[in-house]
Amino acid sequence: MVSLDKIIQDFLIERYYFPAKGKRPPSFPYGFFEKGVAELSLSFTSDRGSLTKNYFNQKELRSGYIAYFLLVNALKIPPLLRQAPADSWPDTKEPIKILDLGSGPGTGLLGSLLFFTKASIHYTAVDQNSAILEEARLLHQKLSPHFPLPSKFRSVKTDLEREPLPAFLHHDRYDLILMVNTLNEIFHPEKRRNMLIRLLNHHLTPQGKILIVEPALRKTTLELMELHDALLSSENPQNIPITIAPCTHQRLCPMLKENRRDWCHTYIEWEPTEMIEEFDQRIGIRKDYLKCSYLILAGSDRDGWRGSGARPSGTGEHGWAEPETGPVPSWRVVSSLMRSNGKSEVVLCGEESAKSGQLLHTERLDRDRSPMNTPFDRLKRGYIVEMEAIKRVEKETPLKIIS
């Protein structure tokens, strides 16, 4: 398969740099797209305060997004989708139906093509900007020949802020609904909650899932955490989703209960492409990791979903069965590994911390490092580990990284 850099570069040159017939530039004209990338980068890291709603109407910003942020955001999608159990996806003999709400130029399309490599895709892009939907359509034409299985594309123009779930959905159901950097543009929390409840109840297949990805900013992430708790606090059990990830439990967020200084986000390890590295050097960006906050949700269809997490049963807090975690609890690492003089510390979130409303702050003294607990040295934000609920790891404490 041709490199993604090459596909995107060819697309940008044809659409923006040299659309008329003539000679192709000898190398990719980074300087031509650099200003748009720099302006978007500044806006995205300051809570989008300086961006107008229709910023994609500006060619400079539209092309800047495709040059840099399309690939950066699309590459977050496959590792996040791998958080769901492999056997929880539909049979790949049938097309995977995907709805991308707030699609932009097709970020979810590219991420889905990279993840569903053994299934064809029927992809629906939804955005309020007609110019960016046209870019998504043309980009699909450019991408599809380079992937092994055919894919279908359609687009719908609508304003999700004013019409959260317009009539075009009818009774359609999808195997995957994507919302990548979309919720932060729908400003009213109640609208977000109501939209998700309707999607979960009426527009997912039995094995369908919703993936919400947000910037790893404090404000946007706290809003996502609050949305998670609002959904789990519903008085109607049918409106309570299954949380597949990042939570390892079906309870309210203990990080929100403990304090509002921290926010639950993750780092995704990656190898930047040459094009991304070049823009990074020119603009002064440093992307050692892909950062984001996210939620993967499934509906409360207790007969259809085949995931390996907790099931709704009418028992336990919010109507959920207790998860079968086995003899050793599992935990999500929700901090970086903090090293200080003579010890290391990490913060964990799991079933026990959700019950108590307090995260588990665990430390290990350097003198207690042993073959039993050496995985402690490799812990990173986002990892899932098996370990007893203890505040101090001793020499004899077993610890296992499971993902």
Q: How would you characterize this protein structure?
A:
The chain is of the alpha/beta class and 403 residues long. It is 31% helix and 20% strand. The protein has helices at residues 4-17, 30-44, 59-74, 77-81, 107-115, 130-143, 189-202, 218-232, 254-258, 274-283, 351-356; strands at residues 96-101, 121-127, 151-157, 174-180, 204-214, 242-245, 266-269, 289-298, 330-333, 338-340, 343-350, 360-365, 384-386, 400-401. Strands 1, 2, 3, 4, 5, 6, 7 and 8 form an eight-stranded mixed sheet that branches. Strands 9, 10, 11, 12, 13 and 14 form a six-stranded antiparallel sheet that branches. A hairpin with a 2-residue loop joins strand 10 and strand 11 (343-350). Helix 7 (189-202) packs across helix 8. The protein starts with a helix and ends with a strand. The relative contact order is 0.11.
Record the SSE blueprint:
Blueprint: H1 4-17, H2 30-44, H3 59-74, H4 77-81, E1 96-101, H5 107-115, E2 121-127, H6 130-143, E3 151-157, E4 174-180, H7 189-202, E5 204-214, H8 218-232, E6 242-245, H9 254-258, E7 266-269, H10 274-283, E8 289-298, E9 330-333, E10 338-340, E11 343-350, H11 351-356, E12 360-365, E13 384-386, E14 400-401
Parallel strand pairs: 1-2, 1-4, 2-3, 4-5
Antiparallel strand pairs: 5-8, 6-8, 7-8, 9-11, 9-13, 10-11, 11-12, 13-14
Helix pairs in contact: 1-3, 2-3, 2-10, 3-5, 7-8
